């Protein structure tokens, strides 16, 4: 399992592009994790799935409410990662109004979750292999803080925890 001091796995996540722009077409775009983190401070949180109750009602809204404070404390980007496809993450981003605030990144085949060792087996509940709920502060690709939830809990991975950790670091 990934630990404080480790580098993020150099996998590729996917991000749904909402509008056409220079060099970008509408639809999924690869986000190479190592490249996207280079020289940046990332507040990353992972959830078991898009549109799930706790994720939609508490986790994402908490990061939306605290985004300005996180950025004022030195965070360059806020990433939400889930084992869903880029189309689902794009629809969830529209539903939650995250454009320009959070990057909603798809880990469609759970490669990132597996590489971090932070998977959650929900096969018996019809959801398959998912990501555990957690948050981490990442600087230049290295994990500085890691807050892993116990199964079914939402106590330590919210934006308020990362904000407190940023203030003491």
Could you explain the architecture of this structure?
This protein is α+β, with helices and mostly antiparallel strands and 169 residues long. The protein has one domain (12-168): Glutaredoxin, CATH 3.40.30.10. The protein is built from five helices and nine strands; from the N terminus they run E-E-H-E-H-E-H-E-H-E-E-E-E-H. A seven-stranded mixed sheet has the order 2-1-5-4-3-8-9. Strands 6-7 form a two-stranded antiparallel ribbon. Strand 8 and strand 9 form a beta hairpin. Helix 2 runs parallel beside helix 5 (159-168). The longest helix is centred in the middle third of the chain and has 20 residues, at 53-72. The model has no long low-confidence stretch (mean pLDDT 93).
Feature tags:
Glutaredoxin, 169 residues, 31% helix, two-stranded antiparallel sheet, single chain, seven-stranded mixed β-sheet, 9 strands
What is the count of DSSP helices, taking H or I runs of 4+ residues? 5
| Pattern of helices and strands | EEHEHEHEHEEEEH
* Strands side by side in the biggest sheet: 2-1-5-4-3-8-9
The biggest sheet, with number of strands, parallel, antiparallel or mixed sense and barrel status, is:
7 strands, mixed
**Number of structural units classed as domains:** 1
Identify the CATH architecture. 3-Layer(aba) Sandwich
Distance between the termini: 23 Å
Mean pLDDT: 93
């Amino acid at each position: 399992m990934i630990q404080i001091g480790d580098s993020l796995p150099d996998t590729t996540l996917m991000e749904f592009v909402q509008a056409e722009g220079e060099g970008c077409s509408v639809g999924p775009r690869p986000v190479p994790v190592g490249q996207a983190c280079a020289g940046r401070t990332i507040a990353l949180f992972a959830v078991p799935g898009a549109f799930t109750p706790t994720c939609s009602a508490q986790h994402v809204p908490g990061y939306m409410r605290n985004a300005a404070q996180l950025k004022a404390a030195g965070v360059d980007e806020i990433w939400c990662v889930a084992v869903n496809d880029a189309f689902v993450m794009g629809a969830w981003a529209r539903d939650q109004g995250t454009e320009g605030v959070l990057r909603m990144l798809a880990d469609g085949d759970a490669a990132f979750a597996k590489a971090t060792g932070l998977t959650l087996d929900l096969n018996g509940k019809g959801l398959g292999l998912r990501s555990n709920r957690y948050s981490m502060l990442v600087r230049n690709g290295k994990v500085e803080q890691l807050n892993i939830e116990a199964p079914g809990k939402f106590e330590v991975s919210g934006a308020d925890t990362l904000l407190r950790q940023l203030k003491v670091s």
